[in-house]
Amino acid sequence: MELNNQTELNNQTQGSNQSLAPRRIEVLVPMRWGDMDAYGHINNVQIVRMLEEARIAAFGPPGGAGLPGQEPPVSLFNDVAPGTMALVVEHKIRYVRTLDYRNIPAIVEIWVGAVKGASFDLHYLIKDPVTREDCVKATTHLAFVDEGTGRVLRLTPEQRQRLEPYTA
């Protein structure tokens, strides 16, 4: 999985009508041979895995998960206090067209939707890497939770500031 060098280029070079649009982070997520179902396209369960891979590439792995690697475009999950978990509350997925297996990574655009007091949404668009056609539109609702108490934590001003440039 790698970040595209053109991550924010399309937002910087588009016309003034796009200037109000949030910046998107573009991530390339490999499609694995085993991700294919009997119909030759990526299985719906594997689509959720691809969303997770894009989310971690864009916003960092949770603290204590693995060894240091490439810094994400937005340090969010990798920069939370010890004892804080970033948990998925809900996924919504719409399959626009099948994502056929290719031996090159799929394109995943990711940006921030609603930011509330203690939670936020991430939006995704998975595209065919050759045709660039939209295949999957998805949203993940997330919250930070105190590991010890199980209570939802409010987003800090710093977290809000990091999300703001990517917010729709």
Itemize the secondary structure elements and their pairings.
Blueprint: E1 2-3, H1 9-13, E2 25-29, H2 44-59, E3 84-95, E4 106-115, E5 119-127, E6 134-146, E7 152-153, H3 157-163
Antiparallel strand pairs: 1-2, 2-4, 3-6, 4-5, 5-6, 6-7
Question: What do you see in this structure?
Answer:
The chain has 168 residues and is of the alpha+beta class. It has one domain (2-166): Hotdog Thioesterase (Thiol Ester Dehydrase, Chain A, Roll), CATH 3.10.129.10. The protein is 17% helix and 32% strand. It contains 3 helices and 7 strands. It has helices at residues 9-13, 44-59, 157-163; strands at 2-3, 25-29, 84-95, 106-115, 119-127, 134-146, 152-153. The chain is globular, with a radius of gyration of 16 Å. The chain starts with a strand and ends in a 5-residue tail after the last helix.
